[in-house]
Amino acid sequence: MKQLAVTDILSCSEYEQQRAALRKEALAQRDLKRFELDDACVIIFENRTTVRYQVQEMLRVEKDDSPERIALELSC
Asked: Counting beta carbons within 10 angstroms of the beta carbon of residue 31, is it exposed (0 to 12), middle (13 to 18) or buried (19 or more)?
């Protein structure tokens, strides 16, 4: 998987406009990559779309889309 870059992340205002469609896509992909081994164990394989969605949601909640904050989130 190609690593996400700061330029791959939308500003908070752009993300708000596209959020519904991006959320629908990310959750659909997550469902395809979800494997239940038993009642107590589920494995979810992440991909670029689902990781980008998680980063965008964190930035949205924190209301901080500065390049420094984005870089920090991507470094984790």
From this structure: exposed
Average pLDDT by stretches of 10, the chain with 76 residues = 89 96 95 91 93 95 92 86
* C-alpha distance from residue 56 to each of 9, 16, 30, 37, 76 (Å): 7, 10, 16, 29, 14
**What is the rounded CA–CA span in Å between residue 8 and residue 52?**
8
The SS3 of residue 38 is strand
Give which of 4, 6, 2 is closest to 66, Cα–Cα: 6
Q: How many CA atoms lie within 13 Å of 47's alpha carbon, on the beta-carbon side?
A: 11
Which residues, in sequence order, are bridge partners of residue 23? none
Tell me, what DSSP letter sits at residue 63? T
